[in-house]
Structures are given as C-alpha cells and as structure tokens.
Design goal:
single chain, Alkaline Phosphatase, subunit A, 4-stranded antiparallel β-sheet, 13 helices
Length: about 500
Amino acid sequence: MKHLLTLLFGLTLATISAKTEKPNVILIFADDMGPGMLGTYGQQVVTTPHIDRLAAEGIKFRNYYGAVWCAPSRWSLATGMHDGRKGGWSHTRGGLPIQRDSGAITEAEFQKRMAAHKANALPIPDNEVFLGQIGQQAGYVTAQFGKLDRGFLTWHERVKRFGWDHYEGYFDHVRCHGFYPPYIWRDGEKVELKGNHMDDCGKTSEKGTEPIGYGGETYSQNVFIEGILKFIRENKDKPFFIYHPTQLPHGPVAIPEIHPDFKDDSRLSFAEKKYASMVKMLDDHVGLIMEEVKKQGIDDNTIVFFSSDNGHELYYGPKPAYKNQTLPNGEKANLTDKKWRSSECGDVFDGAGGRAGLKRSGYQGGIQCPMIVRWPGKIKPATETNHLSAHYDFLATLADIGGVEVPKGKDSISYLPTLLGQPQKENHDFIFVRNNFRQMGGHALVTQAGWKLVQDTKHKNQYQLYNIQTDNEERHELSAEHPELVDRLRKTMLEQVNSDRPDL
C-alpha cells in the first residue's frame, strides 16, 4: 500500500508539473483584417486597445504572411503546408444549405446532393495530420468557434477528422457572409438562434446601407464569444487549445449597434461606421477573452496568438482608383498591371497600411498579415521581429509548444525560438503564396534576404522584383536591375505551383 501511495503521489506531481509546463493556447484568427487596421500597426481612426495590449505585453511580427484569400489561408493553417501544394486551392462548393432552407430544393434533394458531396469532397488520406490533431497529440482539449473547416461546405464527421474535440459555428462558408444565422452547429447538434429567420443569415448588400438591426436578433459573434468564455471556464484545470476563426471584420458590413466612438464621427459614412464598429467588437472580445483567462487564474500559463487570414479588403467603399506602378526613373513599370494603395484611393482607414494591393492580390497588402503573440514570463514585452514566417508555421510552433513531433514532410517551421528570444536555428529560404486570381498581382515568393518576386497573372511570363526590407510598400520595381536574380527566383516560384505533398 505504501508503494502504491508513493506511486500515486508521484503521478500526481508529474501531472501537476506537466500542466504547469504546458501552456494553454488560444489562436484568434480575424477575417480580412490587414495590419493597418490595428493601432499597434499604425491605425489612426479606430482604436484597438486590447489587441494593442497583446503587442505591448508580447511580440509583434512585421514579416508574416497568409494567403490571398480565405480558403487557401485556412487550408495552409490546418495542414502546415504552403498553398502552392496540391490541394491548396481546392475547396468544396458552398451554398447548398441555403438552397434547402429557402425552399429552392427539397429536403430529399438536399440529402441526395449532400451524400454526393460527402463522397467527392476532397477525400482525406488516412495519414494526413491536421492542426487540431497536433493539439490532441499534445494532450490539449481542442475547440473551434466560428468558420468551421477550411471552406466551403463541411459536416460533423469531417470537422472531427480535423481534430476538434468541441466546436460550434457554420458548416457552410457561404452562410458566414451573414451575421444572423437561423442556426449554427454545435458538436453535431443544430442550435436555433432566437429571432433569426433569414435563409441567407441576413447578408447585406456590398454598399452597407441596410439599417442597424437588419438580419435578426442574435448576432453570431456574440454567440461565439459566449461559447469561448464558457469553454475557458469549464476547461481551466486542463490544457486546452482554442482556435477562433471569427467572421469579423469580413463584410458585407453588419453590426447590432454603432459603437459610441463613431456615432458622431463626421469623417465616416454610415457603412464605415458599421465597419469600424465590427473592428471594435473584435477588439472588445479579445479583451473579454483576456479578462476571463485572468479571472480563472491561468493568465501566466496561457499563450495568445492574434492574426488574420489575408490582407485588407474594402466592404464599405469607395472602390479603388487604380494607380500604376512606376520604376525608380519614373517610367511605368507595367502598363497592364495596375494596383492601388488604400492610402491613395480614399480609404479613410487605410486598412492596408500603405501597402500595395488588397485581398486577392499577391502584393503586400493582399498577403502580409498581423501576428501578435503574448505569453507572460516567456515572451519579452514590447518586442518586434522581422522573422520570415507564415500561417503554415503555426502547426510546427504548436507542436513545439506541446512537446510533440512535427509530422515529416511539413513545410511548417516552428518560430517558438523567436518568441522566446532565442536563436532561430531553422529558417525558411523563402515563403511562397499562390494566386490564381487574374488581377492585382499573381504568385508571390519572399526570400529570407528580403527579395520578393511577384508574377503578373495576366502576363505569366512577366515578373516584378522588390526589396521589401527597404520598400515594403512595393513602390520601386527592380527587375531590370537584377535579371539573373529574377530568373533564379522565377524558377523556384514555378517549382512550387501545384507541387507534390511531401508530408503524404
């Protein structure tokens, strides 16, 4: 008996030690939020004190990348692979539940189409390992709140396959463009939301002129923040990993009320006031999460990440007046390739922070994302880093934090050493971002040395070269000065497009 008690006591100490050493992890993943929308990255109109505090008490990345739009960005985050790999731009087709809910198709037809959808929806190999599964392997209770899966139409078994012990949110990505869904899904159960009756979830027009309250009574983001806070309370005594892919501030713009900061702001149109209020709500909810973590006594053992899927997008007007690039000598760099900067087209927020391009663009404004990380006692406050990193590195970083191995063949490289102020022994030679959109800058490749090559999607044999260490806004095109470098980077770029999955 004495030996048994000693053994049990030893196991208890080991369990306590493991809990102390393994921090909780929270990833808040904004939607279409460029760095320029945050105060810590230079925003002047909208204040974001809670997110800014994460930066003041942690580390801010200045050379961090996502994708050009939502689906490949979430695929990259989930798989730990850059989106040039095979499957990176493959996604299921959404909208089927809306057709059923609106009466456009019968329930029987819906079930028939859904069965076909499940049979053909990007089959997952048995040996594929996703981000949520890395969390499970590390001993975390995993939870996802918001835009489920990687897009666009999913179901319960598929969400579980991605590694989520608990989830609540949208199965259909198309429904995410409205903020008043009649129902959401929670662990396989359909949850009706009070006062919401519109089949399209209250999706507004792109002009954002609908009145406050349009769409219904129950705002989706308020449901998700309640779920997150509840999950924290219920799991405070065990290690957890929360992934919150929020809809905010993706448009079309909709909000339950205009934030007091903007009610009397004469600089802003009605749609701009709604958009600004969406950003404020996200910031306020970051504050609520941090308050709950502290209330439960787990603040010192919780690491919080804040990022966004891709660069900035306009959902409040005005549409851009395109500006042509110019070479250092003043000549036009590419007569057919036009791009713009939010600061030059009347965007009152300058959400891209002066960068060229927007969402769907291979220029910095389309792919450079915020990344802020706070971990009390481990990350030195108010630090910044130019470490070259991307969404696909989060998987390896989580594995490093959780003490498990990264599956072989992943593109993902842990940036935990950078967070801890230690030498980053392993680095990317380059970051690659794919772009199949035939507009505003194609595929992009960013090197460790700071060179960036952008392919012109309209003229695939034309490439532009920038030095983002000295010209992050991409105002000076340098391909004529470095033809050999352009040729070398071009070959590397083309090797990445639709390349094999070494992890499979």
